[in-house]
Amino acid sequence: MESTPTKVDAAALPSTPTQPNTPSTTAMPPTPAQHGAAGLSDPAATRTAAEEAAQLLFAQVSAMVSAEMKAGSDDYAMLERMNAMAGAKYKEMSTYTAGLVAVMDRLGQQRAELIPQLEGLDKVLEGIDDLERAAQYLDAYTAKLEAAAKNL
Question: What is the span of the domain harbouring residue 33?
């Protein structure tokens, strides 16, 4: 899986301790006017500005990493819920399938019980067909005898 970068809202970033006249949501170092008459030529002011910029950068990177970790955690939580739902669905399908197997077994037993009866019916039908043929033969023979008797 490929992760996509997450945009971090600067307003949502945690505030970091800064000097009183320095905004905490900008990434720009303080201007010389913010450091007084000495400007950035003062090593202490430059170091303070660099420390503030580093703190702001650290806070922003920390917020970005936290957002990425939360996104990953949310993905895993969603996968866990999906897994639980899939497990429940598979259990439901398993129960349904077990019921189908029981019905199929019962139908198989009933079919096995019916096969001898159906074979008996087939024999009865064959006997009926034999009787019908015998009756037709006797009717035809009787008709011949009647015709022969009339001719005599």
Answer: 10-151
Integer Cα distance of 29 and 54 in angstroms:
10
What pLDDT is stored for residue 19 in this prediction?
Answer: 45
Please give the tally of structural domains in the chain.
1
- Res 30: pLDDT: 55
User: Which parts of the chain have pLDDT scores under 50?
Assistant: 1-3, 5, 8, 10, 12-26, 35, 37-39
Q: How far is C-alpha 131 from the chain's CA centre?
A: 65
